[in-house]
Amino acid sequence: MNNLIQSEWYKLRKDRSFRALILIISASALFWSIFQHIDRTMDGEAPPTGIEMWMSALLGNYIMIIGMCVLAGFFISSEYTTGVMKGIAASGNTRGRIIVAKQLVYALGCIILGLLFPLINGIVATMLSGVGELPDESILLYFVRTVGLLVLFAAGFSSIATLIATFMAEGGKTIAFTMVFFLFIDMFFAVAGRYIPFIETIYSYTVFKLLYDIGTVSPDGSLLLRMILIPIITFVCFGIMNAWVYQRKEIK
């Protein structure tokens, strides 16, 4: 198992799409933080502090979702079409171990992509305008909690993307479908919830809704518990489904 994880980690580090995503996200974060500083200064407003940029970058974190969708297509689905997955399946390792190693490393890649944009925004803004302050909570506690939650949610979303990539088994289709799915799932729940209240209740207990609450300052105990448990449950449940699908999938 350890060898499989090391092999997948090596492939991820060497993956051109992963490297390109890191560069693109880093450049975007650098540009956005500097642009916000210049724009507010020119308008006569106080430039954003590090904690303000960190909080704004957490809202929805669509950069993480887009990067995750692209990575799913290149790192997971493309290996079906290129024959790499068939070679791994014939290597003597069980399918369960193969997909678990793949999903764990892919989740790590998503975590890295998810942390990049907020971290760079916060660091650059801190260098330009200072850390800032929060009225009801220490910045250190807030930062540690939100980083931990972001890691959990990135892992939770990655398990959903892994299942879709295993079903699609083609890079282009996976990227297109996952982007449409993740970017419009909120709209679906919003529209359906107007007519079926039960769906709105379900939505409030999903990673899709709770992602917007990561940046909440001093969340109550109930909300914090949901933000911890729901992404973990999502990661485990979708991971089990993905392993089940992969074990029964015909690999060509």
From TrEMBL:
What keywords are assigned to this protein? Membrane, Transmembrane, Transmembrane helix
Q: Where are the transmembrane segments?
A: 20-38, 58-76, 104-128, 140-168, 175-196, 223-246
The source's domain of life comes to Bacteria
Q: Which Pfam families match?
A: ABC2_membrane_4
Put simply, this protein is called: ABC transporter permease
